[in-house]
Amino acid sequence: MADEKQIPTFDESLKEHEGFGLIQVFTGNGKGKTTAALGEVLRAVGAKKQVGIVFFDKGGENYRERPILESLGVTIVATGRDRIDPATKRFDFSINTFDREEVLRGIETIELFFEKGVDLVVADELNSCLGLNMIDAERVLTLMDQKPAQTELVLTGRNAPEPIVERAHLVTEMVLKKHYFYSGVKAREGIDY
Question: Which residues make Cβ contacts (< 8 Å) with residue 167, sequence separation at least 6?
């Protein structure tokens, strides 16, 4: 990632761009990537746009934002297994064949969103799946190339690979300065999930 003090480059191809159709990336080790994407979702819904979200590698019922998003008319698809052990509340970091198959199912869902002309598509945690080698970057770059001209695409997750960053029109890196998790505070319902 570029030094945060670096002046952003001017992209001549975007000079006259209006409306939807760009690619955004929210990455980094800090909290707020999904939250930033959900802010984009709320604005799009408020503008009466059609929105689809694929939550990559976020199976299970541990995510409190989903019912309200569905009530707003947002199409949601969650892929992956529930990684939170119900007894211990510990996160399972292992990766298996099912996880990789679920990432591909999420990619296929995004392609369907593209075919249906969805205005805003969020690929939540897709960058993390790339960083964990659950899918090849070339497959995601192909997906980005398939994006219709008027569809806005948002990719979230840590460790966005440089080719994804280069292809995007907006890149925001969340920088971790301090986090209560490292002081022993567990994920809090309604705040962290």
Answer: 23, 141, 144
